[in-house]
Amino acid sequence: MISEDFVVERDDLAQCKVIETELPEAGALPSEALLVKVDRFAFTTNNITYAVAGDELKYWQLFPAPKGFGNIPVWGFGEVIASRHPAVAEGERLFGYFPMATHLIIEATDVSKRGLRDGAAHRQVAASVYNIYARVGNDPAFAGRKGDQQALLRPLFMLSFMVDDYLAENDFFGAQTAMLSSASSKTAFGLAHLIHTQRESVTVIGLTSASNVDFVRSLGCYDEVLTYDHATSVPSSTPVVYVDMAGNSRLRETLHRHFGEAIRYSGRIGLTHRATSPDEPDLPGAKPRFFFAPDQMRKRAREWGPGGIDQRFGIAWDGFGPRLDQWIRIVEGRGPEAVQKIYLDTLAGRIPPEQGHMLSLLD
């Protein structure tokens, strides 16, 4: 049996190709291993962030690829087509972190009624959340369109949820204005929704390109929407927290020099613009720092106890999920050519913000 993998050049993300790797026969799988067919996965600008930060955050190590290439992790669904684990049957449906590929071998461990973990040694370098697979075959929340929405938005909304929690825990660093770049991105409007619906004293400003203004305004979760060239129209004395989804060094410098010490927090979350300079100058205001959601999750897991994060996140998702039918149109693509097209269009910023892409390398 052959697996097809979509890989990209780590030093030039615009270069990509499909490679074939031979899979072992079912009987030759390691003890307690699973052979999983990856049948559909979500692809968003957040996956581009995974690629850009692949070395720094060790995403490239999760799914090995030939030297100089990387396999971008994606959130999606797979079917167990061969199992050496006594508690996992063939035909099981899993939701979790997959490679852009047709198949994945999982070394199943910590198997429970709700899920399992991939115990492969090379996967332990990243946060444990990336190695967990939910068993969703009988879960109506993961069926059909709802399942696609979960794949497209749930992991991103978890990031939004943890950023909101971090800001609230710190009382928004004394600011009452939150400014979000790349406001049309799914992580940004998830965060805007949480702040808008839960933090009445905080004004949410979305920064976006002129072409996306109408979409961002239609979401109804931003108090004000500005194009990037009007970002400094906000009075410079306004205390703000800046949540940077764009990863644009020039924009970050412009805002820091405009607001100066009034920037109380500057969090680097995403890299949708892929315009981060390796040699950024020291800037006035709060020092820009990368927000790593698993750190906040580990902290809250200790403080809230077993199930605490899931319970609170579930309540937040129940308020967010019903809005997705109005905000996102799901578009499907199957086969290597379709995957390559959406990948390159996403890399180049050509995907309309109202689209959510569910892909498969299987024809």
Give an overview of the whole structure.
- By secondary structure, the chain is of the alpha/beta class.
- The chain has two domains: 2-142 and 328-360, Alpha-Beta Complex (Quinone Oxidoreductase, Chain A, domain 1); 156-295, NAD(P)-binding Rossmann-like Domain (Rossmann fold).
- It has helices at 45-52, 144-169, 186-198, 213-219, 249-259, 293-304, 308-320, 324-327, 336-347; strands at 2-9, 12-22, 33-43, 69-70, 74-83, 93-98, 103-109, 115-118, 132-135, 177-180, 203-208, 224-227, 240-244, 263-268, 289-290, 329-334, 355-360.
- It has a six-stranded antiparallel beta barrel with strand order 3-5-6-9-8-7.
- Helix 2 packs across helix 3.
Give the structure's gist in a few sentences.
The protein contains nine helices and 17 strands. The protein is α/β, with parallel strands linked by helices and 363 residues long. It folds into two domains: 2-142 and 328-360, Quinone Oxidoreductase, Chain A, domain 1 (Alpha-Beta Complex), CATH 3.90.180.10; 156-295, Rossmann fold (3-Layer(aba) Sandwich).
